[in-house]
C-alpha cells in the first residue's frame, strides 16, 4: 500500500489523534508521533525494533514549548539552547514530565531539538505537543536518507507522511550534545559544528 501524503492540517490532526507519521526534517526523515501518546511511541519502538528503555529524541516547536517537557533551565543551559535553536543540534537536558514512557532516558534526561524548518515547527505547534523523532530504519541498519526512500520502505507501517517545502534535509543526523552535566560534551558530530564549546556552568 502506498504511503499517503498529507497536508499540514491533516498531518497535525493525525498526530493529535495518536498517529505515527514519516516526516521530512531539516536533517533526516524520521518516524514521528506526539511524545505524550504512549501507544504511538510504542508503535515507533516496534517499527524500529528498538530495545525498551532506549530513549527517543524530541522535536519541539520552540524553546518555550520545550520547557513544557524539561526541568527548569539554568541560565547557562538556556543560553546554549538559544544559540543552538532552531537548528541541527540535539541537546540532552534534565527532563521534566508529560512524555510517554521510554521517551526520556533512565537517568531522567531528555534529548530535545528545535528544527530549523519553519513549516515543520508550525506542524509541531498545530499538533499541540512536542513530537518524538527517530530515523527511519530498523535498529542497527542504515537510516533512510530521503523521504521517498523512507516512504517506500516503511510507508505501510505508518499513518501517512508529510514534507514541508522548506525542510532542506541535509541527509545527516543532528549534532548530539550532552548538557546534563556542567560541561557540554559533543557525543555525535552533525552538519554544523557545536557553537558553544568551552561554555558551561559558571
Q: Can you offer a commentary on this structure?
A:
This protein has helices at about 10-15, 40-50, 65, 75-85, 120-125, 145-155; strands at about 20-25, 30-35, 55-60, 90-95, 110-115, 130-135, 160, 175-180, 185-190. With about 200 residues, it is of the alpha/beta class. The chain has one domain: DHBP synthase (Alpha-Beta Complex). The protein has a nine-stranded mixed sheet, sandwiched between helices. The longest helix is centred in the first third of the chain and has 11 residues, at about 40-50. It is globular. The mean pLDDT is about 95.
Short structural description:
This protein has one domain: DHBP synthase. Helix content is 26%, strand content 18%.
Question: What brief labels describe this structure?
Answer:
202 residues; DHBP synthase; alpha/beta; 9 strands; 6 helices; globular; nine-stranded mixed beta sheet
What name does the CATH topology carry? DHBP synthase
Mind telling me which CATH architecture this is?
A: Alpha-Beta Complex
Global morphology: globular
Low-confidence stretches: none
Rg (CA only): 16 Å
- Whole-number average pLDDT? 93
CATH class: Alpha Beta
State the share of residues found in helices, binned by percent. 25-40%
Strand order in the sheet with the most strands: 7-1-2-6-3-5-4-8-9
- Give me the CATH superfamily: DHBP synthase
How would you sum up the major sheet? 9 strands, mixed
Strand content: 15-25%
SSE series = HEEHEHHEEHEHEEE
Distance between the termini: 55 Å
Number of domains: 1
Number of helices: 6
Please provide the count of β strands. 9
